[in-house]
Amino acid sequence: MMKLYVKNDFDHIIGVVAYNNILDDSRNESSYHRGITKLRTGEYVLIDSDETYYKAYTVSDYTAFEAILESGHEELLTEPRFASLRRFLPDIATEI
Fold it and tell me: Which pLDDT score is estimated for 92?
């Protein structure tokens, strides 16, 4: 499995994550892919890639939440590693 370095704004490596594309639509026929994971520090990491480009970068909790919703993979919010993002759900939808 491919590993990606996560760098901060000062270009220092702050983590290493495994590549994934779990935010892709199952019908994704483009060369662009998106994944998400979480560092041990609790920071969320988005992964963007295409045929020749791979980038992993930290994002705010809310940006991670939005990325999951935009992908249509709300079921990820039931996974323990993404459970803290459920706080952004309206009270009416906390049963996911």
Answer: 47
**Pure H helices in 1-96:** 61-71
Give strand ranges (E) for the chain.
3-7, 13-18, 33-38, 44-49, 54-59
Q: Would you list the domain boundaries of the chain?
A: 3-93
Cα 88 from Cα 33, distance rounded (Å): 25
The structure tokens listed for 40 are 């041990």
Identity of the amino acid at 96 = I
What are 20's two structure tokens? 């994934």
Stretch 66-87: mean pLDDT? 95
Q: pTM for this structure?
A: 0.86
Torsion sign across C-alpha atoms 25, 36, 59, 63: positive
CB 71 within 8 Å of CB 83: no
